[in-house]
Amino acid sequence: MEKLEPTFSKGGKAAWLHSTFDAFDTFLFVPSTTTKCGSQVRDCVDLKRLLIIVVLALVPAFLVGTWNIGVQHAQAFGLADWGLWECFGYGLLRIIPLYLVSYLVGLAIEFAGAQIKGEEVSEGYLVTGFIIPLIVPVDIPLWTLAIAVAFATIIGKEVFGGSGMNIWNPALLARAFLFFSYPTKMSGDTVWTGGVSRYLSERTCWFQGNGLVDGWSGATPLASNLATATPESLAQNGFGLWDLLIGNVGGAVGETSVIAILIGAVILLATGIASWKIMLSSVLGALLVGWLGNIGGATTLPCYYQLLLGGFAFGTVFMATDPVTSAQTECGKWIYGFLIGALCVTVRLFNPGYPEGMMLAILLMNTFAPLIDHCVINASIRRHYKKLA
Amino acid sequence: MFETIKLKKGLNLPLKGQADKAVLMEVTPGLVALKPTDFKGLVPKLLVKEGDTVKAGSPLFADKMDQRILFTSPVSGKVQSIVRGEKRKLLAVVVKADAQQVYENFPEHDLEAMSGEQIKDLLMKTGLWASMIQRPYGIVPKADAKPKAIFISAFDTAPNAPDMQYVLGDCAADIQRGITALKKMTGVAVHLCLEAATYSCNPLHRMDDVVLHVFEGPHPTGNVGVQIHHVSPIVKGETVWTISPVFLAAIGKLLSSGKLDLTRLVVVTGSCSNKSGYVRMLPGTCMSELTEVLGNTDGVRVVSGNVLTGTAIGVDGYLGYFDNQISLLQEGDYREMFGWANPIRSKLYSYSKAYLSWLCPRKKYGMDTNVHGGVRAFMFNKVYSDVLPMYIFPVFLCKACMTKDIDAMEKYGIYEVLPEDLATCEFVCPSKVEWQKAIGEGIDLMLKEMA
After folding, report:
1. Same domain, yes or no, for A156 and A257?
2. What is the mean pLDDT of each run of 10 residues along chain B (451 residues)?
3. Domain extent listing, chain B
């Protein structure tokens, strides 16, 4: 690396690639920079470390989700002899292209952006790029994913000045972009199961057995009519309590397994990276509205089911707690999280055409987080001076 | 009488190299420098030229805005050099000390007989006026300013800080005289802040003419800025003066003997110092006089002050005017392969729980000057308020300073802080933002705009 450095530094042949070189260089070695002013010693933690822990926390959801791709596929095509490894292998086969697209497109834009600005490449995309494939349907066409990633990175992040300056969670923005631009590829019952979209259009896919099983619907638990669904009716459709916890149900790749997400939550909370206040208040918000909806007759499901369905758990643990786009003040975090949970369930219960409320709830509260902070800070400053007077 | 103010937030850095309570040597002054850069916001007017003979207490330069405020030589001797930097900015006046010290005599020093105005004139003439710091902004006090209070922090919580009780030794009578003088001069309350653990055996807790406060908590609880914030916060238009007890003792000695004597105990700390302990010396003493104590300084950074707020002065540098600590740090200009991915890194300390150092809270670390990462935008914003025992929003304040937004700076409390108060935030910052520089630049902007 030292030998290569002159080529990439100012005046060298490949100086236009300096940020790229620097990114790889610091990926391999901690830079030798020493403190110049201010504090002479520094904590050994840096953003690379914190963000890699977030990625680590996502790994359980990734593993279970990958396995579940295979499980769903096997169910749809009646591949009864598939075991754990066949399911997992098929899942990997399907998810690796999504990751390739997500990281190649996203990192290319990040590197180019850093190069244009002459800055170091920020590590923020490590996490975003890992999340995006986990929150889209597995059958999403790769070209639409590429467009969504480009949109989220450029419009969601780079125009604001890069990681740390963005208003909205870029991964969710990618999903919202897909949702509104390509609704046919993002909703309906058939997109959530790997291989089905291709089979329906081309009558073929990699492992199709004897074709789609009769009576297979592919519906996700959230597509059930929440107004009349009961735990029993859900269980009859294959969405029992344990299925929802383990995650062998239909849905976006990473969001189905509540247990895997909880392991991630434990990692995030133990390392202090995510705010427990946001997670707890979001759960409380969802429970409250779920309970009100239950006694008010909007739904027949007990309120705790709202925590297990759809993207609620994934959103609460990994996306509502995004430190950049969430509320920054401690009191603000309570308000922010609570409203996310409450809004998510409200959208689910009172908007039947639109079952997944989590994405919009988080994006909406991302938008309002600065306002919440503004109010909290002003109130706090007023209180401080009142105490003085 | 008083209640203990308990602060929970903050960070005591587990740094190796705590000094023993022993005086290692008495430094005979050789080269002594007075640096205008030690005084925030000062525009100096030089009063001597190279080759002039000065006594201890003779003026070397004055404040250009108010030439009654003088800055005096701590030693007698010959002006050896006048160091200038870019645009001929005056950086230091270096005096080569005589073997036999001659003191400027200040005949009027009877505290009982003196009026407030006379005390003020005496302090300005002897250079001790500039030992006070005016907040907001941390500048030399304006001669005609009327502070709302004077604050003294009689303990230091910084990493490996000197034990102030040991440093002050038997100076209690001098300090009392200093306090009485300030009280007489300004007519405002003098607040003395002591540490909860030791206040009852500290002779300072029996001082007259003071309002006593007792604090408990981790660093930066010992910072006078934090103490002011909890006792009597500064709002727009108010000023508070602060002074270190070391200088109070000097004022007390001046009032009893009529001589300027700034000799003080300075602690030498750091895991790589030859010996660690206390050294009796003058502010501005050249580090080359301390070779015996500092030992081998290859690859070592010599810091005047503590490791969080001090200045790197180099092996030929001069101790800062306000500092009574010298910290030695290993330079960290090495490259560590996959450092950030290493799960343990047991030799390094991290406040965050992303590493495992929180599992051994008693372990001490020999730290170096490596930044351990590249500068990024703010991302994880909870950690800062955990290490700052003040009711302010540090990230918002820092961003306001970076964006030069004066209204926001006022709102988020720029009047209450000096860069040193946010040093713990800078230490823990995972984004490696230079906090103290940012806050310092914010204060410079305020000074310029509010003048």
Report:
1. no
2. 86 89 88 94 93 93 94 94 93 93 84 89 93 94 92 94 90 92 93 90 87 93 94 90 95 92 92 80 92 84 93 92 92 78 81 87 87 88 92 93 94 93 94 94 92 70
3. 266-330, 371-450
> Do A205 and A244 reside in the same domain of the chain?
no
Residue A389 has pLDDT above 70, yes or no: no
Q: 3-class DSSP state for residue A339?
A: helix
Cβ separation of B378 and A164 shorter than 8 Å? Answer: yes
Task: Give yes or no for a cis peptide into B220 (omega within 30° of 0).
Answer: yes
* Closest Cα in chain B to A370: B396
Nearest-angstrom CA–CA distance, A173 and A319:
11
* B337/A41 touch (CB, cutoff 8 Å), yes or no: no
Query: Other C-beta atoms within 10 Å of B138: how many?
Result: 20
Do residue A383 and residue A249 come from a single domain?
A: yes
Report how many domains make up chain A. Answer: 2
Query: How many CB atoms are located within 10 Å of the residue A98 CB?
Result: 18
| Positive or negative torsion for Cα B278, B279, B280, B283 | negative
Expressed as residue numbers, the domain containing A324 is: 240-389
pLDDT tier for residue A208 given thresholds of 50, 70 and 90: confident
E strand or H helix that includes residue B133 = strand B132-135
CA distance linking residue A31 with residue A154, whole number of Å: 28
In a domain, A21, yes or no: no
A34 within a domain of the structure (yes/no): no
Is the residue at A18 inside a domain?
A: no
Pick the CATH number of B266-330 from 3.40.50, 3.10.20, 3.90.1530, 1.20.1070: 3.10.20
Q: Is B16 on the interface with A (CB under 8 A)?
A: no
Q: How many beta-carbon pairs below 8 A join chains A and B?
A: 190
Stretch A363-368: mean pLDDT, rounded? 95
* Predicted local confidence at residue A9, as pLDDT: 64
Same domain, yes or no, for A193 and A76?
Answer: yes
Residue given tokens 């002006």 in the structure block: B79
Tokens, residue B260: 């300027």
Residue A1 lies in a domain: no
- Interface ipTM: 0.88
State pLDDT tens for residues A82-91. 888 999 999 9
